[in-house]
């Protein structure tokens, strides 16, 4: 027996047909194919992820040129911001996620600078509500969270200078290590903090599963696992670098770093519930976090500098004892212990590009 067509499904089919017809009639010839590709990948029905051939077709358009990639992002954002349907919204967000994960660089670049004025990608779905059914109301929480997660992923990628989870990123591990070793401590702490924020956002994934979009939720969850593992690998690189230069961290940097380490530790229980995976890199990350946190605490105690904790709201912050004496090297940021000089060559300083 086939699926029973509800009135909501029928309305969705009519809207899809109308949108396709409007795009074919009113769009310029060069834009017709792009708009049709977006619409076909984000139909109201079925409540399942876009077909892979529809995703591949859209990504293929983005390989042509900047003049082609820009209309793709514009059409996708227009579709996302105009819809009130949770299924269409999640499909649009899945397309954005796929662009980040496996899209051509030119398409990723256009995504990272949308809108053109300002360079920030605000998906603006914090107030999204689809109250057509109880299931769509529940699925709306996934739309709001997924948009916020993708915003965080884009923000973290801007801080790092490359897309965290992208398969098209050509930077191999050795190049990343060399790049990271050239950073000032303050910049390394900033990158680590941005990765912790991304992990924290993964932990905020909704618990409820809406039957109407269970296939969509399953697809999103699978992509998140890939993002989580990629983030772990990025964090491990920076933890290794911190271990190389831990004795040269200023008190201020050590405060910020320990804050980040503790926040990351607070995510462990939630992550173990979300993802039951046996990956050596994950276990290595948790052991490295504990080891580094203990080393910093020991060094600060030996230097007469004490870290205490107080709780405020939902998070923790580090506080300094008023009696602490500021040492001369507290305000000096050293380079990696692997480098023989403290100054950063000009060509390395330019290596960290931003979106």
Task: Give your account of this protein's structure.
One of its GO terms (biological process) is clathrin-dependent endocytosis. This is ENTH domain-containing protein. One of its GO terms (molecular function) is SNARE binding. By secondary structure, this protein is mainly α. The protein is about 65% helix and about 5% strand. The protein has 14 helices and two strands; from the N terminus they run H-H-H-H-H-H-H-H-H-H-H-H-H-E-E-H. It has a two-stranded antiparallel sheet with strand order 1-2. Strand 1 and strand 2 form a beta hairpin. The longest helix is centred in the middle third of the chain and has 32 residues. The radius of gyration is 23 Å and the shape is globular. The termini are far apart.
What's the layout of helices and strands?
Blueprint: H1 7-26, H2 29-41, H3 52-61, H4 66-82, H5 86-102, H6 105-112, H7 134-160, H8 173-181, H9 185-203, H10 214-245, H11 251-266, H12 268-274, H13 280-302, E1 307-312, E2 315-320, H14 346-349
Antiparallel strand pairs: 1-2
GO molecular function, one term: 1-phosphatidylinositol binding
Main location: cytoplasm
InterPro entries: ANTH_dom (IPR011417), ANTH_N_plant (IPR048050), AP180-like (IPR045192), ENTH (IPR013809), ENTH_VHS (IPR008942)
